[in-house]
């Protein structure tokens, strides 16, 4: 699939389709399909109709509404939407003061002509890889409703994977876009840290937090990234130096994932295997910094009303708030060293390939994965391959292996800071070759 968003917008700008009809279709799909998935927390039907009608009026007046004219979209429920409380997935925030304005990212999509239709489910305060939410329920994987969608942006991923919306926004701290993209068979972007606007996004860990889109093709993902603030420049896939990450990134990955990377390597004429040192320590340091920053952020609320948190979230935040500053500073020092090791690899390579999640989506009734021969909770451990990369702010495009009729598996295409154009070039080339791509309902 290529360029569905651009095609929708071209049809709306050309008067061949109406934005209002597209909004009505998205509303109907959500009402029909979301009962089995639980991706959507709020359906903004009236607002979507009004926005879509305004787009149609602009087209009728001879105006160009923008590159996403009439495209329906959804946002993870930690983006501010004017007039609504930003819940961040927390039941205790259902009655929070309404946001005074849209988050900058939401405003940019709207300014490009996109129509906001829904807010999407997530792990409470973005602390988890599962989208198992005590207040808003568990989001189910559209490929198999008995399995997890991943998290913490699981609702955003499931809304696209179920064919309800063609574009959604999520956030990624330790893998919260990349994990659900992999488990739901989508394209997802975790950009270079700090490169896309975070204003109006409920924070979790400032050192790692980023936003990014989910879409059903590499071209759609790239267009959304450009609208959000990415470069309009490009790169050619043919001249890229590509390698695969071995060591830590080859352990605990299903054989089918390794075979998928093997097929890509063969297609590219053979690629080098390289390794980052001390990846396990990087993951541990990311865990520590996440816990410490998240705990510090929530400490005033924990002191005031701790019992209103989901216990699974509360206990982790309290533990993080109790960590000594010396441990945090040690992790920060290690991060500088680890960043230098990655930079040395990128002096030789443009793109590194690694698994995203190490396996297919775990079952909801058995939310565990195997790591080094031990069963461990999926909610905390699905990010074994994603955490070490966001720890140093690297951009990643997640791509789904082409597996029609099978449960999805996803790969990370990893670049140096600012390396998104090369990642999109490779993603589009692999999709064109039939090695990657989505398998979604109409």
Automatic annotation (TrEMBL):
<protein>
    <submittedName>
        <fullName>AtzE family amidohydrolase</fullName>
    </submittedName>
</protein>
<dbReference type="InterPro" id="IPR014087">
    <property type="entry name" value="Carboxybiuret_hydro_AtzE"/>
</dbReference>
<dbReference type="InterPro" id="IPR023631">
    <property type="entry name" value="Amidase_dom"/>
</dbReference>
<dbReference type="InterPro" id="IPR036928">
    <property type="entry name" value="AS_sf"/>
</dbReference>
<dbReference type="InterPro" id="IPR000120">
    <property type="entry name" value="Amidase"/>
</dbReference>
<feature type="domain" description="Amidase">
    <location>
        <begin position="304"/>
        <end position="423"/>
    </location>
</feature>
<feature type="domain" description="Amidase">
    <location>
        <begin position="22"/>
        <end position="230"/>
    </location>
</feature>
<dbReference type="Pfam" id="PF01425">
    <property type="entry name" value="Amidase"/>
</dbReference>
């Amino acid at each position: 699939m290529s360029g569905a968003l651009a095609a929708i917008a071209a049809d709306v700008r050309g008067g061949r389709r109406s934005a209002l009809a597209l909004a009505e279709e998205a509303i109907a799909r959500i009402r029909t399909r979301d009962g089995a998935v639980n991706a959507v927390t709020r359906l903004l039907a009236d607002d979507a109709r009004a926005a879509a009608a305004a787009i149609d009026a602009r087209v009728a007046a001879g105006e160009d509404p923008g590159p996403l004219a009439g495209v329906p979209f959804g946002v993870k429920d930690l983006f501010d939407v004017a007039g609504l409380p930003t819940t961040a997935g927390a039941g205790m925030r259902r009655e929070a003061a309404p946001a005074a304005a849209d988050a900058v990212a939401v405003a940019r999509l709207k300014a490009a002509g996109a129509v906001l239709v829904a807010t999407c489910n997530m792990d409470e305060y973005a602390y988890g890889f599962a989208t198992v939410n005590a207040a808003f329920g568990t989001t189910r994987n559209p490929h198999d409703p008995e399995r997890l969608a991943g998290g913490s942006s699981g609702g955003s991923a499931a809304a696209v994977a179920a064919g309800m919306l063609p574009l959604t926004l999520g956030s990624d701290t330790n893998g919260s876009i990349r994990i659900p993209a992999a488990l739901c068979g989508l394209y997802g972007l975790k950009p270079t840290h700090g490169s896309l606007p975070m204003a109006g996004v409920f924070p979790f860990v400032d050192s790692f937090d980023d936003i990014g889109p989910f879409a059903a093709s590499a071209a759609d993902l790239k267009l959304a990234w450009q609208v959000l603030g990415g470069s309009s420049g490009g790169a050619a896939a043919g001249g890229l130096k590509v390698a695969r990450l071995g060591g830590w990134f080859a352990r605990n990955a299903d054989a089918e994932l390794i075979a998928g990377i093997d097929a890509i390597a063969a297609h590219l004429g053979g690629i080098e295997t390289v390794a980052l040192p001390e990846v396990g320590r990087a993951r541990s340091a990311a865990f520590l910094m996440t816990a410490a920053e998240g705990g510090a952020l929530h400490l005033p609320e924990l002191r005031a009303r701790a019992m209103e948190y989901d216990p699974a979230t509360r206990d982790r935040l309290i533990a993080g708030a109790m960590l000594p500053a010396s441990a945090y500073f040690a992790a920060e020092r290690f991060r500088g060293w680890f960043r230098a090791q990655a930079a040395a690899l990128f002096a030789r390579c443009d793109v590194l390939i690694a698994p995203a999640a190490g396996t297919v989506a775990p079952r909801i009734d058995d939310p565990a994965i195997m790591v080094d021969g031990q069963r461990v909770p999926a909610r905390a451990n699905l990010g074994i391959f994603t955490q070490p990369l966001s720890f140093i702010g690297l951009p990643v495009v997640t791509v789904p292996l082409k597996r029609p009729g099978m449960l999805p598996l996803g790969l990370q295409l990893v670049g140096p800071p600012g390396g998104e154009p090369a990642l999109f070039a490779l993603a589009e080339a692999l999709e064109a070759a039939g090695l990657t791509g989505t398998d979604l309902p109409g």
